[in-house]
Amino acid sequence: AQLEALDGFVRGSAIDESRISSDVLNRIHEIYPASPPSLPHATGDELFDRAAAWYGDNMFLAARRRFVDSASKKQNVFAYHFRELIPGNDPSLGVFHASELPLLFGPGATGVELSFATTYLDFYINFVSDLNPGSMWPFLLKRTVPRSPERPNTR
Asked: Which residue, 32, 24, 27, is CA-closest to 2?
């Protein structure tokens, strides 16, 4: 039942369902297993977690990666994929788009995330000021990965 629901979600998210073959679905099942070893946004609902991982990778990260690959041939490009669950946030929401903004704009980081938030804010201010997050920003190395990297990356 879960595979049928996941397949229905994938097909329903496509512009042209006819392009989603059983081979494509089988590959999705392999890449997004029922019991993933670890997901930054794991909620305990396996179907939701699989669908969320697939959706995020395919609808957001793949387009971003394609843009970065193309644009980086002409200029420096700086990008990141935030995957940290911030203590105090509702874990059932996972790590959602813009969930890192409180680290930049308040109400202020404390405890375990304070050091990371300070470094992150330095990167952000450097980028806004100089269009470069600074020399400490790690460079993305060209490689084939099924999912996005864990920390900030550049071209």
From this structure: 32
